[in-house]
Specification:
mainly alpha, 2 strands, two-stranded antiparallel sheet, single chain
Length: about 220
């Protein structure tokens, strides 16, 4: 696998949320605005990149690996928890409003399936640079996924796109033109499940269409 393939696999082919269905709790809970998605995505990016790096560094040496692997789960958790504490302190100091909005889902990054999954499945068996690239790709892929969910929910539920702080786009003029109102349901838990399910259904339909096309091409090729 090339560095490019390693990086971009997390965007589509192995997207943590839409393909592997990992990290669903924060995805369903915090995707009420694009700002929330960006904040959570950047926090996850920091933790995932550096946790992959640290895990790779402590397992790349055969002698250290022999000592670490039998107790790798508590070792990985300590490394990840230390990084999450750093994220918490930085966010609380510089973006306290966003920190309060994301709430418990920042400390819960410690037990996020994506973080521990990449440490166990990738970083513990690959070199530091490869692990950093993998972590960055997976984190940005997850950020893209929750950004898509946030856009759908915020536009349909509030009629706005909140990029960051006061930087927001008001789309109520479009609703006024159409003579309709935003649907509050999309800002509630049921709206999160509905949006997530709809996106997964669209992805499944696209995948099924691709498979059917390939099967038809194979049959056609066989008849020739």
């Amino acid at each position: 696998m090339t560095a490019k393939e390693n990086f971009f696999k997390g965007f589509i082919k192995e997207n943590p949320l839409f393909v592997q269905v990992l990290g669903t709790c924060p995805a369903l809970a915090i995707t009420k605005s694009l700002e929330n998605a960006i904040g959570m995505g950047m926090a996850l990016l920091f933790v995932l990149v550096f946790s992959n790096l640290l895990v790779s560094l402590v397992t790349v040496n055969p002698k250290i690996r022999e000592l670490v692997m039998p107790v790798r789960i508590p070792v990985f958790i300590v490394l990840i928890a230390s990084l999450v504490v750093i994220v918490e302190m930085v966010m609380k100091a510089f973006v306290p409003v966003l920190f309060e909005t994301l709430g418990v889902f920042i400390p819960l990054i410690v037990v996020n399936c994506i973080i521990f999954g990449r440490a166990e499945a990738f970083a513990s068996d690959h070199k530091p640079l490869e692990s950093v690239i993998d972590g960055a790709g997976m984190a940005l892929g997850f950020t893209l996924a929750i950004a898509i969910m946030s856009l759908v929910r915020e536009i349909l539920g509030a009629g706005t796109i909140t990029v960051w702080g006061e930087a927001a786009l008001d789309l109520h003029f479009l609703y006024d033109f159409l003579g309709i109102q935003p649907i509050d349901m999309f800002l509630k838990p049921v709206g999160a499940f509905f949006t997530f399910g709809f996106i997964l259904a669209v992805i499944a339909a696209i995948e099924n269409a691709k498979k059917a096309k390939l099967a038809a091409a194979a049959v056609k090729g066989g008849t020739k």
